[in-house]
Amino acid sequence: MVQFNTLLLVGLLAYQCVADSSSSSSGSDEHGQFVGARKTNCTCGQTNKAVGRIVNGQRSGVNEYPHMVGVAMMVDNVLTTFCGGNLLTHHHVLTAAHCNHDDERKRFLKVADHDTQSDTESKYAKIYAVDEVLEHELYDPVFFQYDIAILVTKTRIEFNLAVLPICLPTGPLEIEGKSVKVTGWGRTSLNQNPSRYLMKADLKVLNLDICESNYNRSYINVQDVHQLCAIGKNQGICIGDSGGGLIWLDPETNRYTLVGLNSLSKSCHLDYPMVATNVAVFIDWIQDQISSSTDLTDIATCGKI
């Protein structure tokens, strides 16, 4: 596991499990389903109704977030999810560069996955081999700058109720102070194993100055808009969920838009903010990389129109 000065690859912190579907915290049953005033150019950012809750970090419902992809590789002959990814097209998944840097082991994409220890929970679950990794050319593996990459599969990923792309920003977003959700299979505490279930948590986007004051300045550059800063209330980020997305409910479309990629956290500490790659800044790079897949079809991304 990569670690620099207590900076850790990220995953969701979660604690006591309760079966309380009447919880007052908002879930995807309230958001991301009904059509908003503005449209999107293709189906994206939808959610499926949540079931059950977990206090602090919450267990997501089965296939609640259709854009969420598990990035996996073989470890001791077991296919193991070690990072998250975000489905963009029938062939492309957006993740963090540090999930793939300097590691030649074969990657796989697990779609419609929820319980990593069950092969029967979702009839939509499938596994696709990654054929190409498109890492940002300026990625810095020491200081996690430009921490973004695209995973490409030549096999067409079929869309359905449980497998759908996330909406991408169509331009800069003013989301400081806004609430976002983050999902993943990361550890529920520093000393525990990764969660077998997809977890979710609510965070708030902060001014990047706050992250700069909590991290070595080598990792955070407030003059550079390539990063976001976010924190949760008794919810946070730990090891194992890098590359998963920060998603924001666009009130105009009532669809979730990918605004960040989980990049850094500090010792799984709930009192510290986490750092994410700012997706909106990389839209041109993302589109250029996807357009370079000239041998593939159905590669259009989705967003607000």
Automatic annotation (TrEMBL):
Keyword Endoplasmic reticulum carried by entry: no
Secretion signal, residue range per the UniProt entry: 1-19
One of the GO biological process terms: proteolysis
GO molecular function terms listed in the Swiss-Prot or TrEMBL record: serine-type endopeptidase activity
Domain of life (superkingdom): Eukaryota
Keyword field contains Oxidoreductase: no
Keywords of the record: Disulfide bond, Hydrolase, Protease, Signal
PANTHER family: ACROSIN-RELATED, HYALIN
Protein name as annotated: Venom S1 protease 18
Species this chain originates from: Lethocerus distinctifemur
